[in-house]
Amino acid sequence: MRILLVEDDRRIATDIEDILKEAGFTVEHAADGNEAWFLGDTEEYAGVVLDLGLPGLDGLTILKRWRANGRSFPILVLTARGAWMERVEGIEAGADDYLAKPFQMEELLARLRAIIRRAAGHATANLYLGDLVLDPKHKQVSLKGRALNLPPQEYRLLAYFMHHQDRVVTHTELIEHLYGPDADCDENTIAVMIGRLRRKIGADRIRTRRGFGYIAETPARQTH
């Protein structure tokens, strides 16, 4: 899944970027408020990590503009410790959660996963598609209680589908969230990967909508 990281401190940004990539996210970084505003207003992201103290436009202004323009992606705000007024303003402006600096990277990852999960309508940490279960924390997948050993890209593809099940996902959307917007990748690459994934989880879980894309659905015979 594609994450926008907005942080002007290079060291902190590098640490956050590393843990997000290790967790399977595709990360785009903006160190300037104006660049961040433009990216968030024109691109689609699964979530945003937004520092409030930025050069150019400040984070709170960016947040308010995004929400005013109907940008609904989940946002985790980073604030200076003790800046409680910033946290209140951030939540009231439409932030989904906040984290005070300094923080543990594992907590940032957990909070980001939680707001993405809530935005997709999932109440529990694990994701379900009938008897197919995905555990984001441990990056494990099981089918009917049996562990599946998926390569990283197939795992990320399945995770994206399971976060967005019951809606059509386009080829372009999958390419951007798996590889980034400038990736040299075509629809055939995605089709081949989906074919491999179907052989492991069952062809009826990811259906093709010709001319539109794909949709992940719970097989009709299964309920969770």
Description:
The chain has 2 domains: 2-119, Rossmann fold (3-Layer(aba) Sandwich); 127-216, Winged helix-like DNA-binding domain superfamily/Winged helix DNA-binding domain (Arc Repressor Mutant, subunit A, Orthogonal Bundle). The two termini are 24 Å apart. The mean pLDDT is 87. Helix content is 42%, strand content 21%. The protein has helices at residues 10-22, 33-42, 59-68, 84-93, 105-119, 152-163, 171-179, 187-201, and strands at 2-6, 26-30, 47-51, 75-80, 97-101, 127-129, 132-135, 140-143, 146-148, 206-209, 213-216. The chain has a 5-stranded parallel sheet, sandwiched between helices. Strands 6-7-8-9 form a 4-stranded antiparallel sheet, covered by helices on one side. Strands 10-11 form a two-stranded antiparallel ribbon. With 224 residues, it is α/β, with parallel strands linked by helices. The relative contact order is 0.12. Residues 124-218 bind DNA.
